[in-house]
Amino acid sequence: MDDIFTIIKAVLLLTSAVLVLLAALGILRFKDDLERVLYARIHILGVADVACILALLVLGEPLLAGAYFILVPFAAHAIANGFYYGEDK
Fold first, then answer.
1. How many CB atoms lie within 10 A of CB 35?
2. How many domains, in total, are found in the chain?
3. How far apart are CA 84 and CA 3, in angstroms?
4. Where are the alpha helices (DSSP H) in the chain?
5. Which pTM was predicted?
6. 80 is in which domain, residue-wise?
7. φ and ψ at 88, to 5 degrees?
């Protein structure tokens, strides 16, 4: 029975790793000359956030995953809000 859980954990961790790599590739593909590129990058980092939460749950850290799930959207919103209102117009 432990072998099944080990295989499931390994598959979930590999899935998380693939999501993080895809998010990194997505961030690198965007050019800085696009308008509102920060918002697209924050959206892509949401994929990495989900992957990290999944990895934390698999590794047996549900409280840390819960805190990450709650705090990261606030941080992303603060960054986007600061970028929007901090621009020179």
1. 7
2. 1
3. 50
4. 2-29, 37-58, 62-86
5. 0.65
6. 2-86
7. -80, 130
Q: Do residues 80 and 38 make contact, with C-beta atoms less than 8 angstroms apart? A: yes
Q: Which two tokens stand for residue 2?
A: 């432990």
Residue in the structure block whose two tokens are 């954990």: 9
Token pair of 45 as six digits: 């980092």
Q: Would you say residue 58 has pLDDT above 60?
A: yes
Distance of CA 73 to the CA centre of its chain: 10
Torsion from C-alpha of 73, 74, 76, 80, nearest 10 degrees: 130
Comparing 64 with 23, the larger pLDDT belongs to 64
How crowded is residue 32: how many other Cβ atoms within 10 Å of its Cβ?
A: 7
Looking at residues 58-69, what average pLDDT do you find? 89
Tokens of 88: 């020179």
CA distance 68 to 7: 25
